[in-house]
UniProtKB/TrEMBL annotation:
Coiled coil: none annotated. This is Short-chain dehydrogenase. Belongs to the short-chain dehydrogenases/reductases (SDR) family. One of its GO terms (biological process) is fatty acid biosynthetic process. Keywords: Oxidoreductase. InterPro entries: NAD(P)-bd_dom_sf (IPR036291), Sc_DH/Rdtase_CS (IPR020904), SDR_fam (IPR002347). It comes from the Bacteria. GO terms for molecular function: oxidoreductase activity, acting on the CH-OH group of donors, NAD or NADP as acceptor; quinone binding.
Length: 275
């Protein structure tokens, strides 16, 4: 399927809202970390549009406040839309994540859904990775997921759903991203571990492993014609994904449509993990 934007910039697709809907999500309460921008903001908006009340959390409180306001304006004419309330969180801080869960319960009375989205994307040759990068990457990308899941489990009733953000980088090597790839591989396996233990609580835990998606994080590829050509050559569908194409699988994993799905790492990568 071609779009005007594809012709303007080969490999990109438009961000048209997907028709997918999950009526069972309406009236539920979600927490989304790293919701000030990027995919976290997209997840919050998509959930609110479908009647979910969201506590969006970010370490940048100003950015989070602006994002929550923007979602409110965007959905002002959507009947039955949920609201997004901004909250501060440093995902490296276990106590802060617990406070976030308590904030959601105080605001909306419960927590049904939790998306561990916050993360960083550092770069360095393997021979040059500094200690500070290793510590920051593991603490945010891995510990942040664990602490978020623990906080979610402490307030969720059976039937709750947690989704973590892994990456295709968990499944294949990306030069210059050893710390990042390792952290996302840890997230993938941590998801499986949590699914086994949280199953005793009636809580499902899954992860999404996106490939190259048209976001700020991949701008460096899109702005370099040679890098873009190389990237597209390693994607069987020969294009970047759109943020909306991550939203759809996320909604599925959160919803009752996936109520017998847990411990799964769902690749949404145009097939690039196979190349």
């Amino acid at each position: 399927m071609s779009t005007t934007r594809e012709h303007e910039h080969p490999g990109r697709v438009d961000g048209t809202l997907m028709a997918v809907d999950h009526p069972d999500l309406r009236g539920k309460v979600a927490v989304v970390t790293g919701a000030g921008k990027g995919m976290g903001a997209r997840f919050s908006a998509a959930l609110a549009r479908r009647g979910v009340n969201v506590v969006g959390a970010d370490i940048d409180t100003t950015l989070m406040s602006e994002s929550a306001t923007a979602v409110g304006l965007e959905h002002s004419d959507v009947e039955g839309a949920g609201v997004v309330v901004g909250a501060p969180v440093d995902v490296r801080d276990r106590d802060a994540q617990q406070k976030l869960a308590e904030t959601a319960v105080r605001e909306f009375g419960k927590v049904d859904l939790w998306i561990n989205n916050a993360g960083i994307f550092p770069e360095a040759a393997a021979t040059d990775i500094p200690v500070s990068q290793v510590q920051a990457t593991l603490s945010i990308n891995v510990e942040g997921v664990l602490y978020g899941a623990q906080a979610a489990a402490s307030v969720m009733a059976p039937g709750g759903s947690i989704v973590n953000m892994a990456s295709v980088a968990a499944l294949r090597v990306r030069r210059g991203r050893a710390a990042y790839c390792s952290s996302k591989a840890a997230v993938a396996h941590l998801t499986e571990c949590l699914a086994v233990e949280f199953g005793d609580l009636g809580i499902r835990v899954n992860a999404i492993a996106p490939g190259f998606v048209d976001t700020e994080m991949t701008r460096w590829v899109q702005d370099d014609p040679q890098a873009l050509e190389a990237a597209l050559g390693n994607i069987p569908l020969h294009r970047l994904g759109s943020p909306e194409e991550i939203v759809g699988p996320m909604l599925f994993l959160l919803s009752d449509s996936a109520r017998y799905v847990t411990g799964t790492v769902l690749s949404v990568d145009g097939g690039s993990r196979h190349v």
